[in-house]
Amino acid sequence: MNLALAALIIAYLEIPMGVLGGIMLVDMIRSDRGRLHDLAVQKQEIASDDGKLKVTTSGFWVKKTDLNKEAKLQAACPSKDLYVVVITDSKSTIGDMTLPEHHKRTRDHMLQKMSSSSATIPLSLNIDGHPALEDEVTGTENGAILTFLHTTVDGGDNFYQILAWTAKSHWAAHKGELDEVTQSFHSEK
Question: pTM for the whole thing?
Answer without folding.
Answer: 0.79
